[in-house]
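Hello,

Our lab assistant flagged a job as stuck in the queue for most of the afternoon. It eventually completed. Since we weren't sure the result was trustworthy after the delay, we are filing this so someone can double-check. Below is the sequence as submitted and the structure that was eventually returned. Let us know if re-running is recommended.
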Amino acid sequence: MTAAARQAALEGIAAEVRVCTRCRLHQNRTKAVPGEGHPDTEVVFVGEGPGYNEDQQGRPFVGAAGGLLTDLLRSVGWERDQVFITNVVKCRPPGNRDPEPDEIAACRPYLERQLQALDPALVVTLGRFSMTTFMP
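-- returned structure --
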């Protein structure tokens, strides 16, 4: 897949995520958080779900955890725009609770399509629910 085709696929997925109503999480969201990053990356970071700041901005990992992730990336010579960052669920669970199995299942096709488009060499899971998505 060319870089342009990857970018188009990711933009299409993001557009679908922004209007998604597959589960109850859409009922209280401010903004869905489809993910962001470089379409030619070899590395994808997958978190659990958006928090308050992410819900407000529609971007992944912009709160305290995002600051830590940015610092960790810089410590190995990377910038956020060199990787792709997404979550298992694309809308904030109320009160930052853990995502429910049906919510994870509803978002899973989006994550699978993102990974298919990106075809990364490395997927880094951030958190228990992210890890169990790949290693049940």
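-- support follow-up --
The delay was a queue issue, not a problem with the job. The result is valid. The two ends are 29 Å apart (CA to CA). The chain has a mean pLDDT of 96.
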